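for the writeup, i need someone to sanity check this before i put it in the appendix. the sequnce is what the collaborator sent (i think, or maybe the updated version? ugh). structure was predicted straight from it, no edits. if anything looks off just tell me and ill rerun, i have time this weekend
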Amino acid sequence: MKPYFFLAEEDHKGFFLILSFILGIIIYFALPFEPGLISVISLFLFAFLMLFFFFFKQRFKFLSGLFFFLVLGIFVSKVHTNMMETKFLKSPKENVSVTGTVTFIEEYETLLRVTLEDVLILSHEEKIHLNKAKMWAQKKLIRDKKFLNQDFECENLNLLKEISDMRGLEKKSKKISTDTCIFKRPAPAQLKKGDLIKGRSFALRPPSTPSQSGGYYEARFLYFEGIEAVGSFSNVMILKESLKPVSALDSFKTYLKNRISFLTPETKGVVQALLIGDRNLITAPIDFLYRALGLTHILSVSGFHVGLISFLIYYLVRFILTLLFVKVSISPFLIRNISASFALIGSLFYVLLTGAEPPAVRAFIMTGFIFLCFFINRQTLLVRTIFVAAFLLLCYKPVLILSAGFQLSFIAVLALCVAVKKVNKKVNFCLRRKPVLRFITGLFLLNVLVTFISLPFIAYHFHKIPLYGIIGNLVLSFVFSLAVMPLLLLGVLFMPFNMDKAFFMAAEQMLLLVHSVGAKIAELPYLMVPVPSFSTWGLVVFAFGFILLACMKGRIKYIGLILMILFPVSFFTYPKADLKLAKEGRLLAVREQTGDLRLNESYLHRTISNNWLLSNAQMPEFYQESEPFRPDYLIIKNKKISFEPDSCSDADLTFALRKKDYSKCPHLITKERLKQSGVLEVFVKNGTLFMIDFSQTDKDRPWNQKKKESDLLF
């Protein structure tokens, strides 16, 4: 007997198994503890035996499959976590010398962001010992008549490590792949991958914990990237240049950058982002304009770009082949297959050229399924291709489920694929004699639906939504789809004939038109609407509710609608802290009676303070700072926060913000304790008092290596 309520898209239920797999990954990352590998393997074997035992029983076959894929998601996540060997820097280091090999470079207008590996960190005292060790090693090498021409100013890093081992020096980190390791200008212009470099870091620190509940978790993200420390560098020197040849893709990227160097700074960054996925040259005003109009997906290579490029190549090749063989009897099926082959090769090259980001890989897998169906003359099931692409990406990297780009990309494409047939059917029936109006109306309705489905994810990750996003997408996406991207593609194709400049100049004029129209829209009031933080479970419930509503048939699909309606409840269940402390107590935020946060320093530590304001539905640019306050200490007495000088002998909790004598204060949070913590949130409402230390968040998970014991409840 078939479970009729799971029938969807011609009885193909495989994507429900993938949905269970995704749920297993979410459960793994939501656990407050790290499950043991033996326990996970045992659970996986038990699920496999259940699947095998109930395989021939129709009633339990599908349910056992759901359970197996749920456990499979937990198992894959655990294995992927155990494969990582990231060990964070134990404590911050100041004024240290860092030597390492460059593996990744991002170029911005005012700085470089690089990734280093095989890193040696030395303090001033250790450098003195190392110099003595080098002198000792040099004498030994000369005495042994070996390596007489060794240049110790450009020595190999492995030799440095060997010398430091011989002299008993501690290697502080075997690898620092820093995503935010900054070289202030001027920096070596010839810096490239594989170079052995040396620089001074004035602030090298381990990745931080979140600045608030549900906030960006830097330590977890960098753990899965293999990043062990972050910091800013200066006085950079190249000790030894790389001997590895530059890859063909990197050479082509450099060639493309040179070909578009004549463009204005306003458009050059956008063109570079569209062609090679490099957003580093986009100016701040242009970036703000695209964010305000809800067009940030245009600047990040995703399914929009990959799908557009692949189908532009497909129809261009098909048009050329049709013209060439117009007088020759050739099968249309053969022309379609040849065009699809060129489109697949072109889209694969574009994905690799732009860095193979998850949205682009997902789009390539989907287009690959579509063109594969062309080869075998089968109809494509779009929903199935979406879930298969998600399954493959999450098997490769399960932590992608937590990224905003992955979530927005898949939920938006799913909404588009599910709605396109129904919207077109309704619009075609109502406007069957007005083709132009039918096209515009259908596109507008699809845009409204996709924007509506994406809003909870935008609000959760960015705490503000573009009010005119629908207008911006409707008006300006036409220009990118029908003018900018085709012109850029033609420019790339005509580069071998030195005829690309005209196409790039035409694309630049279209971009200037987009920017001028966008500037007019951006002048409208209430451009960005702040959204307060809400519980994570609300986002999960909304996402699963929409998937059930979109993929189920029959009355059971309305369960998904009920789940989506429950989403606003998550705003009321989110705990709002009455007091926040960061940066050893130098940054404070107190909730006033109006519900707004009052900060003592809104300009210093801007990243954290902006996150706090946005999570409380306060726009940082409109925040009016009250009279500044810098108390020596603050007390919580009778469940009330006070900065006034008072006796702390009977206080519920006391924070020592200055180094003074607080021996008479019970329940004291000292300056040293604040220094060990990342961000503290204190709740004093409804007769209760408790505190959350975000350095203790996921303290049993491998990405949080701060093992401190403290009593957080009072």
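The first strand starts at residue 96 and ends at 107. Confidence is low (pLDDT under 50) at residues 1-11, 142-160, 162-188, 708-714.
thx in advance!!
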